[in-house]
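User: Sequence recovery, please. Input:
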C-alpha cells in the first residue's frame, strides 16, 4: 500500500498516550505511517530522519530485511508457546548467542519484555541471591539521583527522576541513592568521559557505613545515564564503584537498556569501560525495537546459587507470560544477524570521532551551555528560559520535526542517539539541522 493510502484515524480520544502531553499532541498530531532504514514517513508524506533510533532502540535501522523476514516466518510457524515448564528452540538458540556477546563469566540469560521488567527482574534476583546463600539480611537497594530504571515500582524506587516518583506514594522501602555525577562547573564541553567526579563513587562508602554493608544487596546504575539527559561517568568512577561493591559484597547491576547492543561502539558499556558488573539489564536494541523483549544477564555464580535443592522444584519464582516469546526471539535473532553482517555493534567506534567533532561544532550556538558525547550518543544542554524550564528544548524539538528531523528532549537537554547505520552525510544533515534550529528558537 502506498503511504498516502494508509488510513488515518479521525478520532484520537481513546488512546491515553504514555509520557506525552496528550492535549498538545492531539491538537497537532505527529503521526508516523511507515519507516525504512534511517527515515520515517509521516502521515502528510514527509521524510523524517531518525536522530534518536526511535526511543534509543532501533539500533539496526528501520524495516531491516532479515528482521522482517524472521518475524514473518516465525509468526506463521510457531506463534506462541507457554513460557513456564515448556520451551521452544529459538529461545535457547538466542540465549546462547547472547551470552557469547556478554562479558566473560556472564553465561545466563533471563527473558523479559521491556527494560522496566528487566530492572524488576534484576532487583528481585539480587535480593533472592543473597537469601539463597544464607545472607537474607541483604535487602537494601542503592540507586542514584537522576537515574532512570523504567517505570515500575522497583525501578522508580531506585531511580532518581523526581517527576517519575513524586506522584506515586512511598515506593519501595530500604532504598538509598548516591549523588548524580553531573557537574557543569567543572566538566562542561568535555569530549567523552569527564575528568572530574570519580570521587563521587566514594559516597557509596558513606551509604554503606550508614546502613551497615551487611544490609545492602545491590547497587544499580546506568553506566551512561540516558533519559535524564545523557550523563557520562567521570573517568575512573565506574571502576571505583566496582571496587567498593567487591569490598562489601554488593552486587553491581549495570542497567544497559540504552547502552547495550552497540550504542557506545562496543557490544555493552561493560566492554567500553572495562568494568564487569554482576548483572546486566537490557531491552531496546535486543530486537532493534521491533518486538518488545528484554533480557537480564547474570554471572555464573548468581545462577548457580539458585540451582540447589530438589531438582523437580522451581528455583526462581519469577517470570512473564511472554518471557522468550517465539516471535520476539526470532526478531532478536534477525537483529543479531543484522548486527553481525554489518558490524553494527562496533560501528559506533568508527563513527565516534566524526560524531564528536560534528556535535561540538555547535558549541558557540545560542543558548548552548554544554555539549557532551560518547559512542553514538550526544547531548546539547540549553540555557532554560527563565521561569519556563523545558520550553526552549521542546520548541527545538517541534522546530526540528517541522524540518524533517526527529530529536529527543528531556528538560532543556537535546539528546541524540541515531540508528547505528547512520552515514557521515546523515550526521552532517542532522547536526546541521539542529544548528539551524538553535538559531531560530
Ligand atoms: N532502564 C533504562 C536505563 C532505560 O533507559 C528503561 C530501563 C525502561 O525500559 P522500558 O522498555 O520499560 O521503557 C529505560 C527506558 C528517553 C527514553 O527519551 C528513555 C527510555 C524510554 C523512553 C524514552 O530518554 N528508557
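Assistant: Recovered sequence (441 residues):
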Amino acid at each position: 500500500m502506498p503511504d498516502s493510502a494508509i488510513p488515518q484515524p479521525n478520532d484520537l480520544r481513546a488512546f491515553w498516550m504514555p509520557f506525552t502531553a496528550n492535549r498538545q499532541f492531539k491538537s497537532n498530531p505527529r503521526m508516523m505511517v511507515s519507516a525504512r532504514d534511517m527515515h520515517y514517513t509521516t502521515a502528510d508524506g514527509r521524510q523524517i530522519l531518525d536522530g534518536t533510533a526511535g526511543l534509543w532502540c532501533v539500533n539496526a535501522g528501520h524495516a531491516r530485511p532479515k528482521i522482517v523476514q524472521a518475524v514473518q516466518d516465525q509468526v506463521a510457524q510457531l506463534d506462541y508457546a507457554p513460557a513456564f515448564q515448556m520451551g521452544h528452540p529459538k529461545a535457547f538458540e538466542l540465549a546462547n548467542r547472547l551470552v557469547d556477546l556478554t562479558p566473560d563469566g556472564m553465561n545466563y540469560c533471563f527473558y523479559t519484555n521491556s527494560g522496566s521488567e528487566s530492572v524488576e527482574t534484576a532487583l528481585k534476583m539480587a535480593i533472592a541471591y543473597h537469601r539463597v546463600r544464607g545472607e537474607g539480611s541483604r535487602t537494601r537497594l542503592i540507586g542514584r539521583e537522576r537515574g532512570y530504571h523504567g517505570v515500575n515500582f522497583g525501578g522508580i524506587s531506585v531511580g532518581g527522576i523526581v517527576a517519575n516518583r513524586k506522584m506515586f506514594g512511598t515506593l519501595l522501602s530500604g532504598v538509598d541513592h548516591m549523588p548524580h555525577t553531573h557537574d557543569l562547573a567543572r566538566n562542561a564541553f568535555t569530549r567523552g568521559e569527564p575528568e572530574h567526579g570519580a570521587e563521587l563513587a566514594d559516597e557509596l562508602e558513606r551509604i554503606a557505613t550508614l546502613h551497615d554493608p551487611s544490609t545492602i544487596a545491590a547497587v544499580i546504575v546506568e553506566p551512561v545515564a540516558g533519559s535524564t539527559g545523557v550523563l557520562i561517568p567521570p573517568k575512573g568512577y565506574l571502576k571505583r564503584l566496582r571496587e567498593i561493591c567487591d569490598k562489601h559484597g554488593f552486587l553491581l547491576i549495570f542497567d544497559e537498556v540504552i547502552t547495550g547492543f552497540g550504542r557506545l561502539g562496543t557490544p555493552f558499556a561493560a566492554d567500553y569501560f572495562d568494568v564487569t558488573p554482576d548483572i546486566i539489564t537490557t531491552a531496546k536494541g535486543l530486537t532493534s525495537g521491533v518486538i518488545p523483549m528484554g533480557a537480564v544477564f547474570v554471572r555464573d555464580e548468581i545462577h548457580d546459587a539458585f540451582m540447589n535443592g530438589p531438582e523437580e522444584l522451581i528455583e526462581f519464582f519469577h517470570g512473564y507470560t511472554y518471557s522468550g516469546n517465539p516471535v520476539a526471539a526470532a526478531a532478536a535473532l534477525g537483529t543479531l544477524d543484522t548486527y553481525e553482517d554489518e558490524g553494527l555493534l562496533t560501528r559506533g567506534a568508527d563513527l565516534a570521532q566524526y560524531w564528536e567533532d560534528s556535535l561540538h561544532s555547535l558549541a558557540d550556538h545560542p543558548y548552548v551551555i554544554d555539549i557532551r558525547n560518547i559512542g553514538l550518543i550526544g547531548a546539547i544542554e540549553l540555557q532554560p528560559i527563565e521561569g519556563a524550564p523545558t520550553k526552549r528544548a521542546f520548541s527545538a524539538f517541534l522546530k526540528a520535526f517541522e524540518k524533517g528531523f526527529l530529536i529527543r528532549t528531556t528538560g532543556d537537554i537535546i539528546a541524540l542517539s541515531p540508528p547505528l547505520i547512520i552515514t557521515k552525510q546523515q550526521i552532517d544533515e542532522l547536526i546541521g539541522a539542529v544548528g539551524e534550529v538553535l538559531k531560530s528558537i
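The chain has two domains: 3-51+343-440, 68-340.
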